[in-house]
Amino acid sequence: MNRQPEPRQAIALKYDGKQAPTLTAKGDDELAEAILKLAREYEVPIYENAELVKVLARMELGDSIPQELYRTLAQIIAFAWQLKGKFPEGFDPDAGPVERDITPPK
Questions:
Q1: CB of 64 within 8 A of CB of 20?
Q2: Which PANTHER family does the annotation name (predicted)?
Q3: How many C-beta atoms lie closer than 10 Å to residue 21's C-beta?
Q4: Which domain holds residue 82?
Q5: 4 found inside a domain
Q6: pTM of the predicted model, to two decimals?
C-alpha cells in the first residue's frame, strides 16, 4: 500500500503580550516553505511540532488560540523569548525556575 506523504504544514502566530496569540498565517507545502523562509529571514524562532500545527491549522486566520492550548503556547512563547534574551517585565532570569499556575481565569 502506497501512502501519500503528509503535506508539509506551517503556521504563524502573533502574540502582543496582552491578548491570546492569534493565527496570522497557515499553509501546506510551498506556502509552508514560504512561511518558514520568512520566519528565518526575520529571525523569528521556529518551533517544530507537527501535531500542534495540525490542530492550529484547522483554525481560521485571525482566530485566537483555544484556551485548552494556553499552557502549551505559553511554554513555547517563553522559550522563544529566552532565545532572544527577552523576559516579561519584573522577571528575574537569574532567580531560577519558579513554578507558576498559568491557567487563565474562568
A1: yes
A2: FLAGELLAR BIOSYNTHETIC PROTEIN FLHB
A3: 21
A4: 9-95
A5: no
A6: 0.71
- Residue (of 62, 56, 90, 61) closest to 76 by Cα position: 56
- Residue 18 located in a structural domain: yes
Where residue 45 sits, what CATH number does that domain have?
A: 3.40.1690.10
Q: Which of 5, 3, 9 is nearest to 33 (CA)?
A: 9
User: What DSSP character marks residue 67?
Assistant: G
Do residues 15 and 77 lie in contact, with contact meaning Cβ atoms separated by under 8 Å?
Answer: yes
The three grid cell numbers given for residue 101, joined into one nine-digit string: 499556575
Residue type, 101: D
